[in-house]
Design brief:
heterodimer, A: 120 residues, mainly beta, seven-stranded mixed β-sheet, 0% helix, B: 106 residues, six-stranded mixed β-sheet, four-stranded antiparallel β-sheet, 10 strands, globular
Amino acid sequence: EVRLLGSGGGLGQPGGSLRLSCEASGFTLSTFAMSWVRQAPGKGLECVSAIGGHGGGTFYSDSVKGRFTISRDNSKSTLYLQMNTLRDDDTGVYFCAKGHANGWFFFDSWGQGIPVIVSS
Amino acid sequence: IVLTQYPDTLSVSPGERATLSCRASHSISSNLAWYQQKPGQAPRLLIYGASTRASGLSARFSGSGFGTEFTLTINSLQTEDFAVYYCHYHGNWPATFGQGTKVDVK
């Protein structure tokens, strides 16, 4: 059974940093593309970052480019999102999501969501 | 690619059919997925490639369309189907979502 267990997040200060983690089980992390999708309070979904399978590239939305970094440690089966220079509009729930075998950018399994609040 | 869903809210009685629409700003071939999201939960993949049902999905759900116009149809609506539905362009980066359609009880 595929499972994605998110952790990290919480309260961050504007201009500060947070790191999100997503521990994967039930599949080989390195062989699948993975993404982070966020949802601002009461709003819709936004893909903020992705990392390709099999050593594929990394991708960022314009809203986080230059501030967020996606990475993974295959030995730990864990996906990360390093969030720097936080802004108020980074507040929301962050989901890690597993890319489908037939496509990098649609997601057949999701983590439970990691709340992030950016506030002074 | 900008995805526009309509209507924003769809009120349907249990047992009836719901038809949700999604329009793309440019042709996206069949690179469209649909997700269902219930309050406090992660989204759930329903359809990808415009018309392919995700593993284990009820046949009451069907997707259609190509290019710029897409439809998600839910037949014989059940209580558990009342939720927000998002369409999602998945052909390339940035992979964008529509704003969502809320299906509620009439």
